[in-house]
Amino acid sequence: MNKTRQQEISRWLKQQSIISRRWLALSRLLGLISGLLIIAQAWVIAHLLQYMIMENIPREALLLPFVLLVSIFVLRAWVVFIREKVGYYAGLSIRRTIRKKVLDRLHQAGPAWIKGKPVGSWATLILEQIEDMHDYYARYLPQMALATMIPLLVVITIFPINWVAALILLGTAPLIPLFMAMVGMGAADANRRNFQALARLSGHFLDRLRGMETLRLFDRGVAETDSIREASRDFRLRTMEVLRMAFLSSAVLEFFASLSIALVAVYFGFSYLGELNFGHYGTGVTLFAGFLALILAPEFFQPLRDMGTFYHAKAQAVGAADSLMTFMDAPLQHPEQGQQNLSQTTAISIEAEDLEILSPEGHLLAGPLTFSVAAGKRVVLVGQSGAGKSSLLNLLSGFLPYRGKLLINGIELAQIAPDSWRKQLSWVGQNPQLPAATLRENVLLGDPDADNDRLQVALERASVTEFLPLLPNGIDTVLGDDAARLSVGQAQRVAVARALINSCGLLLLDEPAASLDAHSEQRVMAALSDASYQQTTIMVTHQLDYISDWDEIWLMRDGQLIQQGNYRQLAAEDGPFSALLAHRLEEI
């Protein structure tokens, strides 16, 4: 990472601190109060030692200073505790806001863009990388101010008593941030590489975990285990590199702090022996002055030590913010969002002319396409993977930008309000997602206002009632994480019921029978075939066994519609669809 990029990231991180500027200001104020209490504590201790050793004042006469000292100890402990709590809330507030911005950005990008990266990478970005920015805001930023203020207060306290001790501290203090900055330049780069390796490892591992059965079928288990082992080793080496940088930074700080304190101690030792008779303004060195300087010397460097301890938090935050900024600043072409509301209807008509489907980055995905779908028609999209079928569904869902003309019931899609348009849609994909706790709640996501009769009809039409008696609590059974209590086929039937309970105008089906066993496939396709008559339906599929009675079949290749017609017409023609059927028969 070059210096310019690091400066950009540091500015971005500091800009986010505005979110919690009051908490951060309070944290700095409490830190300053703690510093003043440290000086007061040292002053009282030095006076007590002077009184007891040099002036032989009875202990009974020192009761009030002892009470004062204990009070300072207790008060300082409370201030430190409150400051830790304030710092935590400052970091919490900023992390919540940044995470909300990232989630809003993901929502704007849409599922078509999100699918371009492994799920594990997004999990690392949203969870771990944002969490790793906490210490930067909770500790490092407040400590930056205290690392200047408290040493200055210590010097102001010592200088009127002994200017040599004050100059020793002032002379050695700048060496610490200088060498720490030199070490920190490498630490930020090491953290950035570590986060990149973690994101790759997370995505790699989750993808392999999801495809475990497929890997076993193709005897790739050992090879993928070796691949994960190599990726884990790479991440381990990068983590150790970060730790080496952190230890080096701490070692530099401790070396110069110890050197400075030793110089102060040696100076006072020789002064008490009468060898060094300067620095105390000609009044003679006192035990009070020596004790005060030696007690405050470690406290002079303590804020710098703390900043050094938290310095790796800055390097960690810079590494985490690099990918966050890249994601937040990535140029996206959002679908135009109109304001016109679309009236609720039982079927949608679609007309496209010279339609070009664009990616969020503005690249051409498919087109130009010209087609027309009458209200209530049932259309099947077939073709090889990557032909543009799913891109067309994503466009109709409102997640992709486009050029050209796309009319919905005679209204340009870009002029329709997104919420109004999506109320007209129901969608079933190939990977059923059931985020709610119970089966009932998952189905009602399609229409939370549906009554019990409509719920039962949807369950029967999707053949969910077939396996309901097998569940311990029937429709109110808790499904667990990722619907672990259901098989893939059963989960898909629940997803179909969720789509059917919504009275929509356009039903979009994206490989709804993919990865299902024969029984579940038959049940799902039968339910969807019956449901397809209730509204306009567009289905993407590779399954050719269930499409013979659909109204139209569109064959796509390389982003183009190359054949359109009904099943009999296309099967009779000597063209790509008949070749596809012949290939299918050979596979059987």
Structure description:
By secondary structure, the chain is α/β, with parallel strands linked by helices. The protein folds into two domains: 11-329, ABC transporter transmembrane region fold (Up-down Bundle); 350-587, P-loop containing nucleotide triphosphate hydrolases (Rossmann fold), CATH 3.40.50.300. The chain is 61% helix and 10% strand. The chain has 19 helices and ten strands. It has a six-stranded mixed β-sheet, with helices on both faces. A four-stranded antiparallel β-sheet has the order 2-1-4-5, with helices on one face. The longest helix has 52 residues, at 221-272. The mean pLDDT is 79.
Give a quick rundown of the structure:
The protein has helices at residues 3-16, 21-54, 63-109, 111-114, 119-131, 134-158, 163-172, 175-210, 212-217, 221-272, 287-329, 389-396, 418-422, 439-444, 452-461, 488-500, 518-531, 567-572, 576-587, and strands spanning 350-358, 364-373, 378-383, 402-408, 411-412, 425-428, 506-510, 536-540, 552-557, 560-565.
Counting copies of identical and different chains, the oligomeric state is: single chain
* Range of strand content: 5-15%
Going by CATH, the architecture of the largest domain would be Up-down Bundle
Q: Tell me the number of structural domains.
A: 2
Mean pLDDT: 79
Gyration radius, in Å: 35 Å
Derived structural class: alpha/beta
